[in-house]
Design brief:
The protein is mainly beta and 123 residues long. The protein has no helices and eleven strands. Strands 2, 4, 5, 6, 9, 10 and 11 form a seven-stranded mixed sheet that branches. A four-stranded antiparallel sheet has the order 1-3-8-7, with no helix packed on it. The radius of gyration is 13 Å and the shape is globular. The mean pLDDT is 95.
Length: 123
């Protein structure tokens, strides 16, 4: 069964922007929700996360360029990506933290509900 569904990926030129969305039955306003990305042959890496109070956490590689947000009324998570570069090319996933915690972590092992991913290609 589908728990989370990402959308908004696509192809964009370097310097451009995209906005990803994620919604589904696994969305929980009371837990950290995160965005991850993966390229072939590489580990899935954490990009950004947001906790139940709206505090945000970012990987150093995207700080200042990406913004994570959510709309609990719509059960939807977002990732606004600006100033994209070729190193941002990846399959992007959203995920839900497996536990309630104070503060979010960007470790994939701490998330247990995943979407199927949306491809972002920057050229």
């Amino acid at each position: 069964h589908v728990q989370l569904v990402e959308s908004g990926g696509g192809s964009v030129q370097a310097g451009g922007s995209l906005r990803l969305s994620c919604a589904g039955s696994a969305y929980r306003y009371s837990r950290c929700m995160g965005w991850f990305r993966q390229t072939p042959g590489q580990e899935r890496e954490g990009v950004a996360a947001i906790d139940s109070d709206g505090r945000t956490y970012y990987a150093d590689s995207v700080k200042g360029r990406f913004t994570i947000s959510k709309d609990d009324a719509k059960n939807t998570l977002y990732l606004q990506m600006n100033s994209l570069n070729t190193e941002d090319t990846a399959l992007y996933y959203c995920a839900r933290d497996r536990a309630h915690r104070i503060g979010c972590v960007l470790s994939r092992t701490e998330y247990n509900a995943w979407g199927q991913g949306t491809q972002v290609t920057v050229s």
